[in-house]
Design goal:
This is Abhydrolase domain containing 18. InterPro entries: AB_hydrolase_fold, ABHD18. It comes from Seriola dumerili (Greater amberjack). Pfam families: ABHD18 (PF09752). By secondary structure, the protein is an alpha/beta fold. It has a single domain, classed as 3-Layer(aba) Sandwich (Rossmann fold). The strands form 2 sheets. The protein has a 7-stranded mixed beta sheet, with helices on both faces. Strands 8-9 form a two-stranded parallel ribbon. β6, α6 and β7 form a beta-alpha-beta unit. α4 crosses α17 and α9 packs antiparallel against α14. The protein is globular, with a radius of gyration of 21 Å.
C-alpha cells in the first residue's frame, strides 16, 4: 500500500522545526528510562496516584443540550518528579461536557489531544458535542502539557524544544488520565472509556495499559510505537537533525551510557536502526520521492523500517528532590534490573551488544556515520519509552477498536509488531486514504467505533461498576 500524497503535501506546508533545543538533559533521559520500568508495569503503578487525588471544578456553562464544566488538578508528575514539568504545565486543565439528559447509564469518554490540538474547541466541536446528540455520551477533554494553557512561554506554537519534552508530556498524561478515571468512577459515572486521534490515540493507549480494570479504548490514527514518526514518516523532515547530531557527537554520554540503558524494544530498535541506516535507501521509496526531491530527503532520513504510532510519547523523570522525589527514588531503586516481564517476546540483540567508540572531540562532528547514528539513537530512545510491547497488556483487549488509515504517511506500519500481535483480540478497522483525509472527513467513523466499544463493554460487563 502506498502513502497519501495529501499527507506529503500537507507536511511541506508546515515550516516549523521540531526539537530545536536538542535531546534534552542526559540526566533527564536516564531517569526517564528508569521511570519507564515502573510505568510499564501496571502492578508497580497502583500506588503512584492516590484513590482520592484532589480534582476541582471552578466554572460551569449551560447550553441547550449540555453543561460544560471547567476543572483542574495538579499533575501527579509534579509530585513524583518535582521540577520536570514546565511551571506553566503543572496545573492540568480539562473540560467536562455532560448531557442534560442521559439516554442510558452515564457513559463518559476521555479524549486526549492530538498534535497541535491546543485548548478544547477542536475536540469539543468535532467529537464531544456530536456525541451528546448521537449517543447521549459525556466527554472529558484533557489539555496536554506544552499545549494551550499549559504551553511554556518560550515555546513556538506546537514545536517542542527537546526530545525529552515529548516523554515528559506522555508521562504526565498517563498519570493524569488515571486521576480522571478514578475521579469519574468516584462520581458514579459508568461506563468509562478513552480515545484520541493521532498522538492522542497513542497516549490513550498508554494510559489504558495502566488501568487495572476492563475499559473501552479507541485509538484513531495511531499504532504500536512512536519511533518512526521522527525517522521514517513525513514528520522526520521537520526534525532539527543538525542540532541533534551535534549534541550526540559532542556529548559521549548519549552513546556510552544512555544506550546501555535501553532494554527490549529500545535495544532491538537501536540495532535495527544501525542496520537499516547502512543498508536501505529510506523514506525516498516510502514517499515515492523522485529526482528533484531526493537531495532534501537525503538530508533528513537515512534509515527506514519501523512504524510509528502517533506523535505522542512517553515521559520523564527529573532532578530528584525531597519528599515525593525521595519516594520516586525509592521506587526506582526497587525495580528489578530486568524491567518489565516480557519473556515471551523475542529480545533480539541487547544494548550491551552495541559497539561503543572512543574518539576525540575534534573528530566526532565530522564522521560520515553521524547522521545514521543519530537516527539509530532516536529510534532506540523512542521505542524504549513508547513501544506498546514495553507496557502491560490492557486487561481486556476485546474492548479495543483501533481505527487506522491505509495510506498514512505520518504513521507507517511496516517493520514493527502490529497491535494485533501485542494485544491479541483487539479489532483494527482500516479506512481508505491517509492521515490528513481521515482526520478531516472520518470523525463520524471514529465516533461510531467509540459507541461500538462502549456497547461491547456493557454487554460483557453489565455489573462491573
Amino acid at each position: 500500500m502506498g502513502v497519501s500524497r495529501l499527507d506529503v503535501f500537507y507536511r511541506r506546508l508546515l515550516l516549523t522545526k521540531l526539537f530545536i533545543g536538542g535531546w534534552g538533559k542526559p540526566e533527564d533521559l536516564k531517569r526517564i528510562f528508569e521511570f519507564r520500568k515502573i510505568i510499564g508495569d501496571r502492578e508497580k503503578c497502583e500506588s503512584l496516584v492516590p484513590e482520592d487525588y484532589p480534582v476541582y471544578t471552578n466554572k460551569t456553562e449551560e447550553h441547550s443540550d449540555c453543561l460544560i464544566h471547567d476543572g483542574f488538578f495538579i499533575s501527579p508528575l509534579e509530585h513524583l518528579v518535582p521540577g520536570i514539568l514546565p511551571q506553566e504545565a503543572v496545573k492540568a486543565r480539562f473540560q467536562f461536557i455532560v448531557p442534560k439528559r442521559w439516554q442510558k447509564n452515564r457513559p463518559v469518554c476521555i479524549h486526549l489531544a492530538g498534535t497541535g490540538d491546543h485548548f478544547f474547541w477542536r475536540r469539543r466541536t468535532l467529537m464531544a458535542r456530536p456525541m451528546i446528540k448521537e449517543a447521549g455520551m459525556a466527554s472529558l477533554l484533557l489539555e496536554n502539557p506544552y499545549y494551550g494553557y499549559r504551553k511554556p512561554k518560550d515555546q513556538l506554537r506546537s514545536s517542542l524544544k527537546n526530545v525529552s519534552d515529548l516523554f515528559v508530556m506522555g508521562g504526565a498524561l498517563i498519570l493524569e488520565s488515571t486521576v480522571l478515571l478514578r475521579w469519574l468512577h468516584g462520581q458514579g459515572y459508568w461506563p468509562l472509556g478513552m480515545t484520541g486521534i493521532s498522538m492522542g490515540g497513542y497516549m490513550a493507549s498508554l494510559a489504558v495499559t495502566n488501568w487495572p480494570k476492563p475499559i473501552p479504548l479507541v485509538p484513531c490514527l495511531s499504532w504500536s510505537t512512536a519511533s518512526s514518526v521522527f525517522t521514517t514518516g513525513v514528520l522526520s523532515k521537520a526534525v532539527n537533525w543538525s542540532e541533534l547530531e551535534k549534541q550526540y557527537a559532542i556529548n559521549s554520554v548519549y552513546e556510552e551510557e544512555i544506550i546501555n540503558l535501553l532494554e527490549y524494544c529500545g535495544a532491538d530498535s537501536f540495532k535495527m536502526g544501525q542496520y537499516l541506516g547502512r543498508n536501505m535507501d529510506p523514506i525516498e521509496h516510502l514517499l515515492g520521492v523522485s529526482g528533484g526531491d531526493r537531495a532534501s530527503v537525503d538530508r533528513f532520513t537515512k534509515a527506514g523500517g519501523e512504524a510509528e504510532a502517533g506523535h505522542g510519547l512517553l515521559f520523564g523523570g527529573g532532578p530528584g528532590g525531597g519528599g515525593a522525589g525521595d519516594r520516586l527514588d525509592h521506587l526506582l531503586s526497587s525495580v528489578n534490573s530486568r524491567g518489565t516481564s516480557l519473556d515471551s517476546l523475542p529480545r533480539g540483540l541487547h544494548a550491551n551488544d552495541t559497539l561503543h567508540r572512543k574518539k576525540t572531540d575534534s573528530a566526532k562532528c565530522s564522521r560520515p556515520s553521524l547522521h545514521r547514528e543519530s537516527i539509530s539513537f532516536m529510534k532506540g530512545v523512542m521505542d524504549e519509552c513508547t513501544h506498546m510491547a514495553n507496557f502491560s497488556v490492557p486487561v481486556d483487549t476485546s474492548l479495543i477498536i483501533v481505527v487506522q488509515a491505509k495510506e498514512d504517511a505520518y504513521i507507517p506500519r511496516t517493520g514493527v509488531l502490529s497491535l494485533q500481535e501485542i494485544w491479541p483480540g483487539c479489532e483494527v478497522r482500516y479506512l481508505n486514504g491517509g492521515h490528513i483525509s481521515a482526520y478531516l472527513f472520518k470523525q463520524n467513523v471514529f465516533r461510531q467505533a467509540i459507541y461500538d466499544a462502549f456497547n461491547r463493554f456493557c454487554l460483557k460487563y453489565p455489573n462491573l461498576h
